[in-house]
Design a protein that fits this description.
single chain; alpha+beta; Immunoglobulin-like; 5-stranded mixed β-sheet; 3-stranded antiparallel β-sheet; 1 helix; globular
């Protein structure tokens, strides 16, 4: 038998192997639900995709971390928090709301509202200072409170019964951080 005829079956096998194996791997990946994930980089501004704003850091006015989950003392009538927020949608104004005991027993309006505009040269991170005055009041003195900070990428709808004071019109997005809080009186 000539040498070329002896090599032909081996060549056909290798050729078939090179076609079948990648096809089987691709079919297995599809069956397993393998998809190519979207770009999750915060470094790029993709105007075609709406992204949720996030809270990166919360500190008191002395620069100390406002550590979670607490408990954390909040003094009646005093204090400010420095918030570092991020939103890949660089031109969004961010709306911050502070809630105390929201939904306990019924939804309550935000205690504090502040905004972070994009600025003349928009950046991914924004730092704003928001007052704590009004979060705790004298009737709320004591432990066992839930203090929440929520950041929205558009103004929340305050009268929507599905999520009173916190509902967003589509495609609005938000994110929340929360702490156990103790409302304390001011030192005299």
């Amino acid at each position: 038998m000539p040498r070329s005829q002896a090599v032909a079956p081996a060549a056909r096998f290798l050729h078939l192997f090179a076609i079948v194996v990648p096809a089987v791997i691709a079919a297995a990946a599809i069956a397993a639900g393998c998809v190519i994930p979207p770009n999750l980089s915060l470094e790029e501004n993709d105007a075609a995709v709406n992204s949720a704003p996030v809270i990166r850091d919360v500190r008191d006015e002395a620069g100390n971390p406002f550590e979670r989950p607490g408990p954390r003392d909040v003094t009646v009538g005093q204090g400010r928090l420095v918030l570092t927020l991020a939103d890949p949608d660089l031109t969004d104004t961010l709306y911050v709301r502070y809630f105390l005991d929201y939904g306990l027993p019924a939804p309550t309006p935000a205690r504090i509202e502040c905004e972070a505009a994009p600025g003349a040269m928009p950046t991914l991170d924004r730092q704003i200072t928001c007052s704590l005055v009004g979060v705790c009041t004298t009737p709320a003195l004591g432990p066992d409170h839930i203090f929440e900070i929520e950041v929205f990428d558009r103004p929340p709808v305050v009268d929507d019964p599905t999520r009173l004071f916190r509902q967003l019109a589509p495609p609005g997005l938000s994110s929340t951080w929360w702490w156990k809080a103790t409302c304390v009186g001011a030192a005299r």
